[in-house]
Amino acid sequence: MAQNILIADDTAAIREVLREALTDEGYEVAEASTGEEVLAAFNGSDEVRPDLVLMDIRMPSKDGLEVLRALRSAGDSDLPIIVMTAFGSASTAIEAMKLGAFDYIAKPFELEEVTVAIERFFERRDLSDRVVRLIAESTRDEILIGDSPAMQEIYKIVGRVARSDATVLVSGETGTGKELVATVLHRNSTYAAGPLIKVNCAALPETLLESELFGHEKGAFTGAVAQRKGRFELANKGTIFLDEVGELTLSTQKKLLRVLQEREFERVGGTTTIKVDTRVVAATNKDLPREIEAGNFREDLYYRLNVIAMELPPLRERHTDIPLLVEHFLHKHRYGRTSAPARISQEAMSRLLTHDWPGNVRELENTIERAVVMARGGIIAEDNITFPGQEARRSVDVTQAIGDGTTLADFLEDMESRLLREALRQAGGNQAVAAGLINIDPADFRARLKRTEADDSGV
Ligand SMILES: Nc1ncnc2c1ncn2[C@@H]1O[C@H](COP(=O)(O)OP(=O)(O)OP(=O)(O)O)[C@@H](O)[C@H]1O
Ligand SMILES: [Mg+2]
Predict the structure, then answer these.
(1) Which residues line ion ligand 2, judged by CB < 5 Å?
(2) Please, is 211 exposed, middle or buried when counting C-beta atoms within 10 Å of its C-beta (0-12, 13-18, 19+)?
(3) pLDDT tens per residue, range 174-230
(4) Given 75, 104, 137, which residue is the final one in a domain?
(5) CATH of the domain at 58
């Protein structure tokens, strides 16, 4: 169905030119010559309401700004209106945007500027409609976004394995959505009625981890004052998510192998054999075949885990997913709880499209969240898009830091965050390599990165 555009201008010649051009482009066109008529079009029935209005600011009987104010006070904050302003009246244009206009065009204009602005409007509206639909369709807020061929492949696998109880190994760089995929997999599986239990294998030392996974009997070790159920037991009839499975020690790997083979185990310090029916999903950002060669990972365990392999592609290999992801995060991270989603300028979008995203979707999400705050929920400009990797190249101004009253802790944390990100950038997103560059342990690197990112996103 053709889109319906209302041209509102008091100069008949301008309406004429626009009508001709837009009809040629395949739009349905209606005309108005006063602000009152524009308001009437919005107050009419759904069938006659325009999909988009091209509106002159200077019109008799309610000018453009009055129209915008009236519509806004009626509750619409995101208006399908592109305003046309006289050349040089930047303040009016800004005012119009603040009042919720989608874009503005300065007169006199080239017709192409108009058609490009219109196409941008409809593209944005389609993305927004899709995100709103996706949010409505999903019962929870865990939605996988992206329709690049690589992501479609992931959806297919999720669909296929959901009905089985096969073990799944999700691999991919940091921030590519491994945990999110595991969650979506669980929610769509035959185990969905049961719990989803997550264990981060890198977070605990070996002995604590074993008791965490398998539980312990009273008195099994100092401090085991009571019997405790392990994560595997708790995950019975549900899913257990073993995050960072590449960090397991060889001895824990052996115990895990037995659970995967026999579906049974004993609590630490116990003799009773416990049987569980649990779907296992493991995740890693390590290259496990390489870890096997290095003698750090058991080959037999690898094959047990890797029954179904899901390799999440890095974001730099699926740039076509960026606009939809951006739209999703604009909906997710609003400036105020009741604010409309912020909007993004074309320049800012180009910047996002050309970045190489070492931190993948998590980095994109953090970037958008930061930009929304910087733009105060309005229109995100190019300047509002900042990448930590670039900050790392900035020199350190100690004098200014002291002048600003920066604390030592904040200063060091800022430096740490920049160093980690720069290392990650230089390592092409590979955390293990990045950790090597600054001579720390990969698990330590990951933990630090997560912590600094969490601090950053809480601006
Ligand atoms: N396809 C996607 N659609 C929507 N959101 C996504 C997508 N992929 C990742 N995210 C979001 O990005 C963030 C990071 O994702 P997640 O924690 O699943 O990554 P990860 O691969 O487990 O990273 P790490 O290896 O660092 O643990 C989350 O907020 C998640 O919701
Ligand atoms: Mg994760």
Answers:
(1) 179
(2) buried
(3) 999 999 999 999 988 899 999 999 999 988 888 889 999 999 998 888 888 888 899
(4) 137
(5) 3.40.50.2300
Provide CB contacts within 8 A for 196, sequence distance 6+: 182, 183, 186, 187, 235, 238, 239, 241
pLDDT classification of 391: cutoffs 50, 70, 90: low
pLDDT tens, position by position, 214-267 = 999 988 888 888 888 999 999 999 999 999 999 999 999 999 999 999 999 999
Query: 171 alpha carbon to ligand 2 midpoint, in Å?
Result: 10
Looking at the structure, do residues 305 and 321 belong to the same domain, yes or no? Answer: no
DSSP state letters, 365-383: HHHHHHHHHHTTTSEEPGG
Quick one: which H or E segment has residue 84? strand 81-86
Name the domain boundary from 84, 104, 137: 137
Residue 165 sits in the same domain as residue 247: yes
Are 206 and 339 contained in the same domain? no
125 shares a domain with 21: yes
Same domain for 170 and 286, yes or no, is yes
Structural domain boundaries enclosing 66: 4-137
Tokens 């101004």, residue?
Answer: 397
Residue 269 CA: distances (Å) to CA of 207, 256, 287? 12, 16, 33
Structural domains counted in the chain: 3
Going by C-alpha positions, the residue among 215, 135, 144, 222 that lies closest to residue 177 is 144
Per the rule left: phi > 0, alpha: psi between -120 and 50, beta: everything else, 166 is: beta
Burial 251-287, CB ≥16 within 10 A → b, else e: ebbebbbebbeeeebbbbbbeeebebebbbbbbbbbe
Mutate to test the pocket of ligand 1, among 169, 170, 180 (most ligand atoms within 8 A of CB): 180
In the chain, the largest separation of any two C-alpha atoms, in whole Å, equals: 91
Domain of residue 334, CATH code: 1.10.8.60
Q: Whose CA is nearest to atom 23 of ligand 1?
A: 175
3-state class (DSSP) for residue 218: coil
Is 144 contained in some domain? Answer: no
Q: Which tokens sit at 191?
A: 């185990």
Quote the pTM value.
0.73
Which of these, 383, 371, 385, lies nearest to 342 by C-alpha position? Answer: 371
- Pocket probe for ligand 1: among 127, 141, 179, the residue whose CB has the most ligand atoms within 8 Å is 179
Residue 324 and residue 306 share a domain: no
Do both 167 and 276 map to the same domain? yes
In the beta sheet, which residues pair with residue 170? 283, 310
Residues 51 and 155 placed together within one structural domain of the fold: no
